Amino acid sequence: MASTRMLFAVLLAALVSSSPDAVSAQTIDAGRGELPLVVPSDYDPGTPLPLVVLLHGYGSSGARQEAYMRFGALADSHQFLLVNPDGTEESGGENRRFWNASEACCNFMRSTVDDSAYVMSIVDAVKAQYSIDPKRVYLIGHSNGGFMSYRTAYDHSDTIAAIASIAGAASTDEPPAPSNPVHVLQIHGTDDSTIVYDGGAIRDHRYPGAVGTVERWAAYNGCGSEGRDGGTLDLEGEIAGKETTVVQYADGCTAGGSSELWTIAGGSHVPSISDTFSQHVIEWLLAHPKP
Hints:
The protein has a single domain (4-286), classed as Rossmann fold (3-Layer(aba) Sandwich), CATH 3.40.50.1820. It is of the alpha/beta class. It contains 7 helices and 14 strands.
């Protein structure tokens, strides 16, 4: 079982300090202060665009997560808006930022904050000021942010078209299917010692493994139980070749739903992402709108 301190240390050790290529002067406020918003330089209110919300890992911040993954650099070429919010700070002195996502991760101080509602308030705040395609609202989350992506997608399946969870997991409990299908992508390294690929527990609260997570959501989405080979990708910059295998659960799914697993062989909790990692993730999301 990973301790709170270990979770924090692993996450911070690999976060880079460089600034993202795309810097926007735009901001929005969804009730917890101003948030940076990346908007394409040729934004036209007459053309609704996708919205991507990036959710950071435990102990990190929206700015650090974006500096690490650099999705904003793709906003012009792929035509989407990006917002990277901060979770709330823990009580108790250390003040690490977290999302109240599941029993396992990472509300260690038992806060009653409703982060699922807050994420939706961010979506609503952007929609109020910009032209957003209602069929293309997406979440990307790393670690604790991945847990939060699943939580928000479950709670607000009418709005969220697809999520990409990187080293996160589905909820500890197994509730019935959400009201609407949602496309889900799980990206996970086999050598992740923080959120273990095969599943584990944090403070006696278990979380499912990567395969269990995608199979649960495949069932939610009415997909067949057998995944099919989707080829290979290069997602890890320090591992030679195409080290990532793709398994797709897309047969027989309810319209608007599918489930997919990208397994990084030898990948850690905070992988050294390849030059094409962020592009692969964004292009997958954009290819999975609501019907």
